[in-house]
Design goal:
Layout: H1 14-23, E1 27-34, E2 42-52, E3 58-67, H2 69-99, H3 103-154, E4 158-163, E5 168-171, H4 173-179, H5 183-186, H6 204-211, E6 218-225, E7 231-243, E8 246-259
Antiparallel strand pairs: 1-2, 2-3, 4-5, 4-8, 6-7, 7-8
Helix pairs in contact: 2-3
Length: about 260
């Protein structure tokens, strides 16, 4: 793990992994800025969670990177809006004190203040609605993540999800069983650089097609060797991962189509 860049960028993970393994409790590493060349800066919430087996023995750790960029920006916008509202309210109070000099001016200004107050209330309601929507989305995201982890953890098919840079973002247990590498060993690593028994060079065109503007899927059958050294025909599906009408990555689904008998 210490040889992988993801162990110290965007945040130093090894201390958190060690603490989670020793204490058997999740470790929150807080929010960190993640800056990649040519891409907007992002804010990640990093959590290290121990994986417990029978007798509460620690079998490993799971590292979660939650993109909270939108939430942080929304929170900053909300704070700025609140500051502006407080400033406007103070200015209104000052104006009221000045307008108390004459009853005629006070009546005229009072109508203006009522209009402004309605606008402030409307703005506050909009902010409350935005906060509620953010909380609802966060809850939905948590439920979806739990649901997705449950599905991928019980699939017999090996599933690998790559980002648009072909770096591993998800590696389910079936992929570990097939190729012998754990998710924490491959997370953030370029897929074509992995040392597994699959001829990755033959997947370049298929991955390029999935990540291109058209986002085309490809089915292949390749000669491979699993983690136990057995040769087999590996059925590989390469599908584009779409978001907002664009290809944001690729999904690889792998399964044994036929195991080769050892030569006599």
């Amino acid at each position: 793990m210490q040889d992988l860049e993801v162990s110290y960028q965007p945040v130093e993970l090894r201390t958190g992994i060690q603490q989670a393994s020793q204490d058997g409790q999740p470790v929150d590493l807080g929010r960190v800025d993640w800056v990649r060349p040519g891409q907007p800066a992002r804010v990640l919430q990093v959590t290290v969670v121990p994986i417990l087996g029978g007798g509460q023995a620690v079998l490993g750790t799971s590292i979660g990177f939650e993109d909270v960029t939108a939430f942080v920006r929304l929170d900053a916008d909300h704070r700025e809006s609140r500051r502006q509202l407080e400033t406007a309210y103070e200015e209104l109070q000052s104006t009221v004190e000045e307008l108390e000099t004459t009853n005629e001016e006070l009546q005229s200004t009072n109508e203006e203040l009522e209009t402004t107050n309605e606008e402030l209330q409307s703005t506050n309601e909009e902010l409350e609605t935005m906060n509620e929507e953010q909380r609802t989305r966060a809850l939905e995201l948590d439920r979806l993540n739990i649901f997705l982890e449950g599905i991928l953890g019980n699939l017999e098919l090996a599933v690998v999800v790559l980002d648009d840079s072909q770096q591993v973002q998800l590696w389910n247990p079936a992929a570990t069983e097939m190729w012998g590498l754990r998710e924490d060993e491959v997370a953030g690593v370029h897929f074509l650089s992995l040392d597994i028994g699959l001829p990755l060079g033959q997947l370049r065109d298929a991955m390029r097609a999935a990540l291109g503007d058209g986002g085309a899927g490809t089915d292949l059958v390749l000669e491979a060797v699993n983690r136990r050294g057995r040769s087999f025909e590996c059925s590989v599906q390469v599908q584009p991962l779409r978001a907002d009408g664009k290809s944001r990555g690729a999904i690889l689904i792998m399964a044994e189509s036929r195991v080769r008998a050892p030569a006599e």
